[in-house]
Amino acid sequence: MEDTRPGRNLRVVLLAGFGGLLALLLIAGLEALSVVKSLHASEEAVRSAFFARNESLLTFRSYLDVYGDRVQQYFLAQGPAEDFPQLAKQIATALNSYPAREPEEVALFTTLQAMVAEQERAVNGGIAENHRDDRARMNRYLCDQVLPRRARLLEVSGQIAVWNQEQLRGQEAALLAQFSTARSNLTKLLIIVLGSGLALAIGSIVYIVGQDRDARLRYSDLSHSR
Description:
This protein is mostly helical.
Protein backbone atom coordinates (compact mmCIF):
# COMPACT_ATOMS: atom_id res chain seq x y z
CA MET A 1 0.00 0.00 0.00
CA GLU A 2 1.37 3.42 -1.04
CA ASP A 3 2.40 5.72 1.78
CA THR A 4 0.34 8.90 1.43
CA ARG A 5 1.23 10.50 4.73
CA PRO A 6 1.98 14.23 4.53
CA GLY A 7 5.38 13.70 6.11
CA ARG A 8 6.53 11.68 3.12
CA ASN A 9 5.98 14.56 0.72
CA LEU A 10 7.79 16.88 3.09
CA ARG A 11 10.77 14.57 3.24
CA VAL A 12 10.91 14.32 -0.54
CA VAL A 13 10.78 18.11 -0.91
CA LEU A 14 13.43 18.70 1.72
CA LEU A 15 15.74 16.01 0.38
CA ALA A 16 15.43 17.32 -3.17
CA GLY A 17 15.95 20.91 -2.07
CA PHE A 18 18.90 20.30 0.20
CA GLY A 19 20.42 17.87 -2.30
CA GLY A 20 20.26 20.54 -4.99
CA LEU A 21 21.71 23.12 -2.61
CA LEU A 22 24.60 20.83 -1.70
CA ALA A 23 25.22 20.20 -5.40
CA LEU A 24 25.41 23.95 -6.05
CA LEU A 25 27.79 24.39 -3.12
CA LEU A 26 29.97 21.58 -4.45
CA ILE A 27 30.03 23.13 -7.91
CA ALA A 28 30.94 26.54 -6.44
CA GLY A 29 33.73 25.01 -4.37
CA LEU A 30 35.17 23.04 -7.28
CA GLU A 31 34.99 26.09 -9.52
CA ALA A 32 36.78 28.22 -6.93
CA LEU A 33 39.53 25.61 -6.54
CA SER A 34 39.94 25.31 -10.31
CA VAL A 35 40.19 29.09 -10.74
CA VAL A 36 42.71 29.46 -7.91
CA LYS A 37 44.82 26.60 -9.26
CA SER A 38 44.76 28.02 -12.79
CA LEU A 39 45.70 31.53 -11.66
CA HIS A 40 48.47 30.19 -9.44
CA ALA A 41 49.90 28.16 -12.32
CA SER A 42 49.75 31.18 -14.63
CA GLU A 43 51.46 33.38 -12.06
CA GLU A 44 54.21 30.81 -11.51
CA ALA A 45 54.77 30.54 -15.27
CA VAL A 46 54.99 34.33 -15.65
CA ARG A 47 57.44 34.75 -12.78
CA SER A 48 59.55 31.77 -13.83
CA ALA A 49 59.87 33.19 -17.35
CA PHE A 50 60.79 36.61 -15.95
CA PHE A 51 63.45 35.23 -13.60
CA ALA A 52 64.89 33.02 -16.37
CA ARG A 53 65.23 36.03 -18.66
CA ASN A 54 66.60 38.24 -15.91
CA GLU A 55 69.16 35.69 -14.76
CA SER A 56 70.35 35.08 -18.32
CA LEU A 57 70.64 38.81 -18.96
CA LEU A 58 72.56 39.39 -15.71
CA THR A 59 74.96 36.58 -16.62
CA PHE A 60 75.52 38.13 -20.04
CA ARG A 61 76.19 41.56 -18.57
CA SER A 62 78.58 40.18 -15.94
CA TYR A 63 80.65 38.46 -18.65
CA LEU A 64 80.49 41.62 -20.73
CA ASP A 65 81.80 43.67 -17.78
CA VAL A 66 84.68 41.25 -17.20
CA TYR A 67 85.54 41.30 -20.91
CA GLY A 68 85.39 45.09 -20.98
CA ASP A 69 87.65 45.41 -17.93
CA ARG A 70 90.23 43.04 -19.42
CA VAL A 71 90.16 44.91 -22.72
CA GLN A 72 90.75 48.23 -20.94
CA GLN A 73 93.65 46.70 -19.02
CA TYR A 74 95.13 45.52 -22.29
CA PHE A 75 94.89 48.89 -24.02
CA LEU A 76 95.74 51.07 -21.02
CA ALA A 77 98.08 49.01 -18.89
CA GLN A 78 99.47 46.41 -21.30
CA GLY A 79 97.51 43.60 -19.63
CA PRO A 80 97.33 40.07 -21.05
CA ALA A 81 95.02 39.20 -23.95
CA GLU A 82 95.21 35.38 -23.83
CA ASP A 83 91.81 34.96 -22.17
CA PHE A 84 89.90 37.17 -24.65
CA PRO A 85 88.66 34.24 -26.83
CA GLN A 86 87.37 32.38 -23.77
CA LEU A 87 85.62 35.48 -22.43
CA ALA A 88 84.08 36.16 -25.84
CA LYS A 89 82.82 32.57 -25.94
CA GLN A 90 81.22 32.98 -22.50
CA ILE A 91 79.47 36.15 -23.67
CA ALA A 92 78.12 34.38 -26.76
CA THR A 93 76.96 31.38 -24.70
CA ALA A 94 75.13 33.59 -22.20
CA LEU A 95 73.55 35.54 -25.03
CA ASN A 96 72.38 32.42 -26.87
CA SER A 97 70.89 30.95 -23.68
CA TYR A 98 68.47 33.85 -23.27
CA PRO A 99 64.91 32.52 -23.83
CA ALA A 100 63.78 35.19 -26.31
CA ARG A 101 60.33 34.46 -27.73
CA GLU A 102 58.54 37.69 -28.57
CA PRO A 103 59.30 39.33 -31.96
CA GLU A 104 60.42 42.61 -30.38
CA GLU A 105 62.64 40.72 -27.97
CA VAL A 106 64.14 38.60 -30.75
CA ALA A 107 64.88 41.75 -32.75
CA LEU A 108 66.72 43.31 -29.81
CA PHE A 109 68.80 40.19 -29.31
CA THR A 110 69.62 39.97 -33.00
CA THR A 111 70.94 43.53 -32.74
CA LEU A 112 72.83 42.62 -29.58
CA GLN A 113 74.47 39.59 -31.21
CA ALA A 114 75.63 41.71 -34.14
CA MET A 115 77.05 44.32 -31.75
CA VAL A 116 78.89 41.67 -29.72
CA ALA A 117 80.51 40.36 -32.90
CA GLU A 118 81.36 43.92 -33.93
CA GLN A 119 82.99 44.61 -30.55
CA GLU A 120 85.04 41.44 -30.77
CA ARG A 121 86.25 42.39 -34.26
CA ALA A 122 87.23 45.84 -33.00
CA VAL A 123 89.19 44.37 -30.09
CA ASN A 124 90.90 41.81 -32.31
CA GLY A 125 91.74 44.57 -34.78
CA GLY A 126 93.45 46.56 -32.03
CA ILE A 127 95.38 43.48 -30.91
CA ALA A 128 96.43 42.72 -34.49
CA GLU A 129 97.83 46.21 -34.98
CA ASN A 130 100.05 45.67 -31.94
CA HIS A 131 100.87 49.30 -31.17
CA ARG A 132 101.42 48.70 -27.47
CA ASP A 133 104.60 50.72 -27.58
CA ASP A 134 102.55 53.75 -28.64
CA ARG A 135 100.35 54.37 -25.58
CA ALA A 136 98.66 57.42 -27.06
CA ARG A 137 97.62 55.48 -30.15
CA MET A 138 96.31 52.61 -28.03
CA ASN A 139 94.30 55.07 -25.91
CA ARG A 140 92.79 56.64 -29.02
CA TYR A 141 91.86 53.24 -30.41
CA LEU A 142 90.24 52.29 -27.13
CA CYS A 143 88.25 55.53 -26.94
CA ASP A 144 87.28 55.63 -30.62
CA GLN A 145 86.67 51.97 -31.47
CA VAL A 146 86.14 49.88 -28.34
CA LEU A 147 84.42 51.92 -25.63
CA PRO A 148 81.62 53.32 -27.86
CA ARG A 149 80.69 49.79 -28.89
CA ARG A 150 80.69 48.65 -25.29
CA ALA A 151 78.46 51.59 -24.34
CA ARG A 152 75.98 50.66 -27.08
CA LEU A 153 76.00 47.07 -25.89
CA LEU A 154 75.14 48.16 -22.37
CA GLU A 155 72.45 50.46 -23.71
CA VAL A 156 70.73 47.71 -25.70
CA SER A 157 70.98 45.21 -22.84
CA GLY A 158 69.40 47.86 -20.62
CA GLN A 159 66.56 48.20 -23.15
CA ILE A 160 66.01 44.46 -22.95
CA ALA A 161 65.89 44.63 -19.15
CA VAL A 162 63.29 47.42 -19.36
CA TRP A 163 61.31 45.41 -21.92
CA ASN A 164 61.41 42.42 -19.59
CA GLN A 165 60.03 44.50 -16.72
CA GLU A 166 57.26 45.90 -18.92
CA GLN A 167 56.33 42.38 -20.00
CA LEU A 168 56.11 41.30 -16.38
CA ARG A 169 53.87 44.24 -15.50
CA GLY A 170 51.65 43.58 -18.52
CA GLN A 171 51.29 39.91 -17.70
CA GLU A 172 50.56 40.68 -14.05
CA ALA A 173 47.86 43.13 -15.18
CA ALA A 174 46.37 40.39 -17.38
CA LEU A 175 46.38 38.01 -14.40
CA LEU A 176 44.62 40.63 -12.28
CA ALA A 177 41.98 40.99 -15.00
CA GLN A 178 41.50 37.21 -15.03
CA PHE A 179 41.22 37.22 -11.25
CA SER A 180 38.63 40.00 -11.39
CA THR A 181 36.58 38.05 -13.95
CA ALA A 182 36.84 34.87 -11.91
CA ARG A 183 35.83 36.72 -8.76
CA SER A 184 32.80 38.16 -10.56
CA ASN A 185 31.77 34.72 -11.80
CA LEU A 186 32.20 33.17 -8.37
CA THR A 187 30.20 36.01 -6.81
CA LYS A 188 27.35 35.34 -9.23
CA LEU A 189 27.48 31.63 -8.44
CA LEU A 190 27.46 32.40 -4.71
CA ILE A 191 24.43 34.64 -5.14
CA ILE A 192 22.67 31.81 -6.96
CA VAL A 193 23.55 29.40 -4.15
CA LEU A 194 22.39 31.82 -1.45
CA GLY A 195 19.23 32.63 -3.38
CA SER A 196 18.51 28.94 -3.83
CA GLY A 197 19.08 28.33 -0.13
CA LEU A 198 16.79 31.21 0.79
CA ALA A 199 14.11 29.98 -1.61
CA LEU A 200 14.45 26.48 -0.17
CA ALA A 201 14.15 27.76 3.38
CA ILE A 202 11.08 29.89 2.56
CA GLY A 203 9.50 27.06 0.58
CA SER A 204 10.11 24.60 3.40
CA ILE A 205 8.61 26.96 5.97
CA VAL A 206 5.55 27.60 3.79
CA TYR A 207 5.12 23.88 3.17
CA ILE A 208 5.51 23.00 6.86
CA VAL A 209 3.06 25.73 7.90
CA GLY A 210 0.57 24.47 5.32
CA GLN A 211 0.95 20.89 6.49
CA ASP A 212 0.52 21.98 10.09
CA ARG A 213 -2.64 23.91 9.20
CA ASP A 214 -4.05 20.91 7.33
CA ALA A 215 -3.25 18.64 10.27
CA ARG A 216 -5.02 21.01 12.68
CA LEU A 217 -8.06 21.14 10.41
CA ARG A 218 -8.22 17.36 10.18
CA TYR A 219 -7.83 17.06 13.94
CA SER A 220 -10.59 19.62 14.42
CA ASP A 221 -12.89 17.71 12.02
CA LEU A 222 -12.23 14.46 13.86
CA SER A 223 -12.97 16.09 17.19
CA HIS A 224 -16.31 17.45 15.97
CA SER A 225 -17.35 14.13 14.42
CA ARG A 226 -17.10 12.22 17.70
